[in-house]
Design a protein that fits this description.
By secondary structure, this protein is α/β, with parallel strands linked by helices. Helix content is about 45%, strand content about 10%. The protein has helices at about 35, 55-60, 75-85, 145-155, 170-175, 180-195, 200-215, 225-230, 235-250, 260-265, 275-280, 290-305, 310-320, 330-340, 350-355, 365-375, 375-395, and strands at about 5-10, 20-25, 40-45, 65, 95, 120-130, 160-165, 325-330, 360-365. The strands form two sheets. Strands 1-7-6-2-5-3-4 form a seven-stranded mixed sheet. Strands 8-9 form a two-stranded antiparallel ribbon. Strand 3, helix 2 and strand 4 (about 65) form a beta-alpha-beta unit.
């Protein structure tokens, strides 16, 4: 009983490569690599020190501790890794699992940059479990730790293969852009393992769990968090909040995707050319549905930039027909019926949602507050105005702004589709 170890390649000294990057990370048994690597320092959660037996062993490795309670923990952790990595051999090598979470070893997810920020040589270390039955994989979805331990102990032995690859020395560009260094090391490791790479991260796992808690299919949370957050400058809390908003629309649909009917129902409006145009801008792949990734991109790239103070003021004036600084339900209903081409449209519920104090009239403050919380409406109305202006131009009207509302969309109306940029 036990583990049968096979070691390939050669571990270099801490002067040659101060950091060891180990992947794929799939089990708590991966800690075995510490023994093979000469007991290097590790990066570990501070809570792990309280674990019986394992905590004492971990303390002997002089770990770099990460605390979830300390808001400066990430910054301090990177500084400590950098201090040890640039100590010219005074500290043991620092062993890091750059994926930051356990996976099922079918691919390599995005490497976190902590191991690559110091700009020192990194030695990639591969972990394999070439067994007939997989009893070691421990992910957020699957066997619990106790079950994995019992299953593994039930085997006559468990094969573990550790392979040390040649160290990677960062280029000057990679020292300035650690993510490039991380990508190159990951690509080398993936090629040696014969597995693909993916831009998913631990945060995607958290979003999948949150999606499950919101009664959405867990797959709805897969958005390639690192890529989308970098390109759209979004933080975890922002995307988590967007997921909750998405769930409010998609819960009634099958498969966790939004169709035009769910979209219209959420906005409390009928399907119209303007609404169809807005939905098309969200539906980036043109399959007739909007998934969570498309929803986040649509809100961030299309709706919020269009939802400026100037736009909100302009829309308020459009509704406030008598220019008394308040919108009555009659004014609100009249414009919506005209713009959407639905003469018997009932918008009582939407009006009540905006009329926060229940006075029967919408003030600018109430209108602005609702618009900022629901940027979809701002984009919907600017889309409507664009369609009317475009229709007026193609019908020969010299004053596009004066064109009467119509429910007909010119087949040449392609202007707003330019918003549909590649993410």
């Amino acid at each position: 009983m036990g583990f049968r170890m096979t070691v390939k390649g050669k571990r270099v000294s801490s002067k040659e490569a101060p950091i060891l990057a180990v992947a794929p990370h799939s089990s708590f048994f991966d800690g075995i690599v510490c023994v093979i690597a000469g007991l290097p320092s590790t990066v570990s959660r501070s809570e792990n020190l309280a674990t019986p037996v394992f905590g004492r062993f971990l303390r002997c490795l002089q770990p770099v501790l990460v605390s979830r309670l300390d808001p400066d923990s990430r910054k301090n952790t990177i500084l400590e890794i950098e201090r040890r990595a640039t100590s010219c051999g005074e500290w043991p090598q620092v062993l890091i699992f750059p994926e930051g979470t356990c996976t099922n070893r079918s691919c390599l997810i995005t490497f976190k940059q902590g191991a690559f920020i110091p700009g020192v040589p990194v030695q990639p270390v591969l972990l394999r479990y070439p067994n007939r039955h997989d009893t070691v994989t421990w992910t957020w979805q699957g066997y619990k730790a106790r079950d994995i331990l019992l299953l593994t102990l039930s085997q006559l032995y468990t094969n573990v293969e550790v392979e040390f690859l040649p160290p990677h020395v960062p280029t000057e560009e990679e020292k300035q852009e650690p993510y490039l260094f991380a990508h190159r090391v990951r690509d080398t490791m993936a090629t040696a393992l014969g597995v693909p790479v993916t831009d998913h991260t631990y945060e995607d796992c958290r979003l999948m769990i949150s999606a499950g808690e919101l009664t959405l299919p867990m797959e709805a949370g897969l958005v390639e968090f690192t890529k989308i957050s970098r390109k759209l400058n979004l933080k975890w809390d922002n995307i988590k909040k967007e997921l909750e908003g998405f769930a409010a629309i998609a819960n009634e649909s099958k498969g966790g995707r939004i169709g035009i009917e769910e979209f219209a129902k959420f906005l409390k409006l009928p399907i119209s050319p303007a609404l169809n145009e807005l939905f098309t801008l969200f539906d980036r792949n043109g399959d007739g549905t909007v998934d969570f990734r498309e929803y986040v991109i649509g809100l961030t790239v299309l709706c919020r930039p269009a939802n400026t103070k100037g736009t909100i003021q302009m829309l308020f004036k459009l509704f406030d027909v008598d220019d008394d600084g308040r919108i009555t339900q009659e004014e609100f209903t009249s414009l919506l019926r005209s713009s959407l081409g639905v003469p018997d449209l009932d918008v009582t519920k939407l009006f009540q949602d905006i009329d926060a104090d229940g006075s029967g009239k919408i003030t600018y403050t109430e209108f602005e507050d609702f618009a900022l919380k629901h940027p979809e409406y701002g984009k919907l109305f600017t889309t409507y105005l664009e369609l009317q202006r475009h229709h007026a131009l193609h019908s020969g009207d010299t004053d596009p702004a004066a064109a009467p509302p119509t429910n007909t969309v010119s087949p040449e109306a392609e202007d707003s589709a330019s918003d549909k940029k590649e993410d």
